[in-house]
Every structure is written in structure tokens, then in C-alpha cells.
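Hi F.,

I've been meaning to write this up properly since the lab meeting, where we talked about keeping a consistent format for the predictions we share between groups. The idea is simple: the sequence comes first, exactly as it goes in, then the C-alpha cells exactly as they come out, then a line or two of notes. No screenshots and no reformatting. I'm using this chain as the first example so we have something concrete to point to.
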Amino acid sequence: MPKRLKPKHEPDSLKGWQQIAAFLGQPVSVAQRWGESWMPVEKRGRESAGEPVQIATESADLAADLRRGLSYVRKHASKGKQKRAA
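Output, unedited:
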């Protein structure tokens, strides 16, 4: 009797930039930059109008989140200036 093959187990999806960054061994900002430039990322679920949302918890690294938020604002501010110039 032939052996039954085990069904291929697909790995769980990484959810959120924190998990993606931890998997890659990179900071969140690097994972996000890679996601915007070349890394295939599928966005699912609810997003907040494209702006980052922070829910403060006791274990949250607020300094890192502040840096990420400032980076987001700077990046989008420069894109707005480019659109106005065109």
C-alpha cells in the first residue's frame, strides 16, 4: 500500500510590520522600506487612512514609534511637495 503524503503545511502569514521585521531580523523602518520598494507584501484588513496608528501599552517602545511616525510624516511631506511642484 503506498504511503500517504502529508499535506503541505503553509506557514502562517506574518501580520504587521513588527512581525515582518522580527522575521527578517531588521528594524520596522527597513521592513517597511523594503515593502515599498521590492518585497512582496499583501495588505489585508483594515487600515487607517494610510496613517500609522499607535496604541500605547506598557511594553510599547514609544521612542521607536515616535521615530517611525516622524519618518512617515517626513516621507509623505516630501511627496506632497513633489506633487505641488509638478
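Notes:
The two ends are 70 Å apart (CA to CA).
Residues 59-86 form one domain.

If this format works for you, I'll send the rest the same way.

G.
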